[in-house]
Amino acid sequence: MKHPKTLLVIFAEAVLEKRLVADAKRLGAHGYTVWDVRGGSGLDGGDMQTREGAWDSDRTIEMKLICSEAVADAMAEHVLKTYAPHHGVSLYFAPVQVMRPEKF
Description:
Blueprint: E1 3-13, H1 17-26, E2 33-37, E3 39-41, E4 49-51, E5 60-67, H2 69-82, E6 89-98
Antiparallel strand pairs: 1-5, 1-6, 2-5, 3-4
């Protein structure tokens, strides 16, 4: 049987990883996945800003949480309020369906 959950994906500066993991646990996420990513922005006609990851201060992570909608909303609100004013952060949500809902 499938169960509805919310996928929250956070792209952030790597320096935030430990804080984001602690925040996710504190706000009720049962698990997460984090990895290093590279890329750029500017597809909307703006200047292309590529983060190549050559230096620790230039690294970007992608964090994925599959959790309840309430936990995803709380985490996103916290990230936007706490980190977005001073760090590069992007987020998106997607509805997902999971098996074994107790894992999420």
